[in-house]
Amino acid sequence: QAEDEMRQKLLEQRNEKMKTINRTLRAISQATGEDQGALHPGVDQPTDDTKDFGEWWLCDSCQQPLKPSTQKFDCKKGCDFTLCQVCFKRHRTGPRLHIHGLMRSIVPEDCNPPSVWKEGDGRLQHIETLLDEQFNCNNFEDVIDGQPVTFKYKQVGGSSPTASHPAVRDKSGKKRQRMKKVTAFKQAKRRRLSS
C-alpha cells in the first residue's frame, strides 16, 4: 500500500513537471508561430485551448532531448531521472550524477522531441562543460583514471639533523653532491667505465 502511494506521488510529480514543460513549449511555439501535435498521455487536459506535446525525454545532465531509437538510462527506483548514453558513460566513470542505479531502455519511435526545441541548444554548453572538466587541473588529485583517489599525508622526519631545507637549497650543485653521494650515479659511472 505504501508503494502504491509512493508510485502515485511520483506519477503526480511527473505529470506536474510535464505540464510545466508543455506550458513552456506552448509559449515558445506561440512566439515562433509553430503548432504541435497530440496531447501527452496521462497528463490532464490543459484548461486553455492550446495543445500539449507528445511524450518525450530530456537528459537531466546535458539538457538535450533524446531522439527515438536511442538508448536512455532511467532511475531504477522510479525517480524522474534520465540520462543519455554520453552522460551515462561519464556518470559511470566520473562523479555520480544520481544516487540510485540506472536501467537501460530504448526511446520509443513515436516519442519525438518537439520541433520548437532548438537543435544543439544544450549540446554546445554540454561540450564546454566536458572540456572544462577534462582540462581543469584543480581536481586532478580527486579522480585518476576514473577511480576516486584519497591522498593521505604524514609528517616525515628529516634524514640529516644537521642539514635544513634552506641550507641544502642554497648550496650549489657540486656542494650538494659532496654532501651525499647518490648510489645510482655511482653505479652508472662504474658501468660506463667498465664497458
Point out poorly predicted stretches: 34-51
CATH fold title of one domain: Wheat Germ Agglutinin (Isolectin 2), domain 1
Round the Cα radius of gyration to an integer and report it. 30 Å
Largest sheet: 3 strands, antiparallel
The strand order across the widest sheet is: 4-3-5
Q: What is the molecular shape?
A: elongated
Question: What is the level-2 CATH architecture name of one domain?
Answer: 2-Layer Sandwich
Give the percentage of residues in beta strands.
5-15%
Helix count?
6
Give keywords.
two-stranded antiparallel sheet; Wheat Germ Agglutinin (Isolectin 2), domain 1; 195 residues; three-stranded antiparallel β-sheet; alpha+beta; 6 helices
